[in-house]
Amino acid sequence: MTKAAAPVYQIGLTTGVALVVANMVGTGVFTTLGFQLLDIQSGFVVLMLWVVGGLIALCGAWCYAELAAAMPRSGGEYQYLSQIYHPAVGFLSGWVSATVGFAAPTALGAMALSSYATSVWPALNPLWLSVAVVLVLTAIHASSSRAGSYLQVVITAAKVIVLVAFIGAGWLLADPQAIQFAPQPTDWGQLLSPEFAVSLIYVSYAYSGWNAVVYIAGEVKAPQRNLPRILLLGTSIVVFLYVALNFIFLYSTPVASLAGEVEVGYVAAHHLFGESVGRLMGSVIAGLLLSTVSSMIFAGPRIMQIMGEDMPALREMAVVSKVGIPVRAMLFQTALTLLFIFTSTFKAVLLYAGFVLSLFTFLTVMGLFVLRWRQPNLPRPYRAWGYPLTPLVFLTLSGWTLLFILRANPTESFYGLATLLGAYLFIMEDAE
User: Where, by residue number, does the polypeptide cross the bilayer (predicted)?
Assistant: First the structure.
């Protein structure tokens, strides 16, 4: 193995968009609707959750596009916050991204895949199936960037085709349920309720991944031109798919059957197509979740690699293979993923990851204002559309959600803050 080797294979527009779509479309949209329906029964309010979540993601993508084009180095928030605020803030965000931002969602994706698979094939062991999926995909991505990229494009294309087909079939074949999608007088108050804010964290988690490509920005062809296009095109595709898919779930399936369920895609397919086709769709959804797990394993280790290039204590993580793959960082992320799989429940991991990730995307978007003030002459190949309105919308909605998460789920929020404290103590020890 060598260190700081240039990537042999560079990522183009198609692979970049596939990476963003794969990161976003997966665990969240196939699992979180059941949690939302425990507190919210209105079809209009539930769809507004997904519209508002999409608005947050698009505003974030516009802001990140400016930062990514101005600072096209891999590492994501670690890179941006180190330059905008202080290297210590960048390290904390990088540590969170490496440990929570990718390892936890990878575990969630594998756990959701296993949950769907065992609904179809009860004889399977969900724990060991999750472990096997993570290990096999790690082996593929550790061997070849080109093979990993091709795999990502193929399974993401299959995912989008299946979802569009599911949406179309649901519209044509469903027996409409007794749920109101037009706003009712009581719905407007729910949009400002604590239940809406807490449910928005599930939706925000489902949309997380819109910034996935910034973690591998250094491996993107013509980054100043392609990074904004990848971020905005990938996010726009997913917003359309999410709103349409959740409409079909609610339109075709009784709320009572969906509320509290993790495998909402399987429940909807079973109700829509019958037992045999429903089981087939459940297995297809399980297969499509491979794309989500694969994309996390592909992108996440690049953060730890960049941190290793900058920090002596993490120097081993900067070591790459002959073809430029950070294998040691990838194995580190895989070990953390397996730890989450063996020790945590699905909902606890989701809330824990959602709180901490939202905190650092909030700081990053706020950094857009700071960077424009401190470095007005910095070359900006792309400027955020709608500035300053779009970052203000993102900060307002994200900050509102963070406050309600802290109040409603203090345990998971505390674990998230404890992760930051552990990382801070690591910095202090390294500085000594």
Answer: 12-38, 44-67, 88-113, 125-143, 150-174, 196-218, 230-251, 280-304, 325-343, 349-373, 385-406
